[in-house]
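Researcher: Please predict.
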Amino acid sequence: MADAMCSDSTVGSCSIVDWTSYSISSGNIGSQASFNTELPVACGSQCNADANSACATSCSTCDGQEISGADTPVTRRYKMGTMAAKNITFSFETYEIKDRITVSYEGRNLFDSGCVRTEGEKYLPISFEDYYNKFTAAGQAFIDCVRPRLFGYLENYLSEINGAVNCDDLYIKALDSHEQIYADCNFCDMVFSNLSALMEVLYDANACEQIRNMVVKCSDVYYREFCDKYPDTPCICTSS
């Protein structure tokens, strides 16, 4: 959602939005809370922001820091000092109250604890890599075009929902929206020069099948030649 809110904002800016909480049960969104909370939205790095900026606290150096949360969502951004790292030790603890911890890099989810009560400290290795820079200029232009449109579809879908959200319906309809969005963002112009980069970011079987079908539509001849040469290419030439 932050990507959508920042689509028309200057990189490094900070804005305040009113955040309203909802109850969630079995993956369905329920009733709306009777109060609003101010939530700072950081658009890009805040490392050069003024000390009194509402977003300034979201930028710090990752060096064994221990951060406590709050009753409202808390987001922390860290300068990693590198564009790739393997098996960083990440620890978290929610004690006896259920909480959810997520870790992401460049919009890609690296870890999601779910809503858990740890009752003790948990450790896990986390690795990340700057996948965006693995794409060519055409591939990056495609990503920049697709992101706000995908978020826009999600926002429109949610705005038309009265009551609980059916997550299965949202998944199916959002996936169905991808093909036209991809086509509008010149998918065929960039896909064949970015296949290896695409393979690293596709982790959903249905999304894989969708991409494979679109590649065939772009050029059935090139698709067959490519898979004859590289038959073990995951997702594109195989079913996994």
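Model: The two ends are 29 Å apart (CA to CA).
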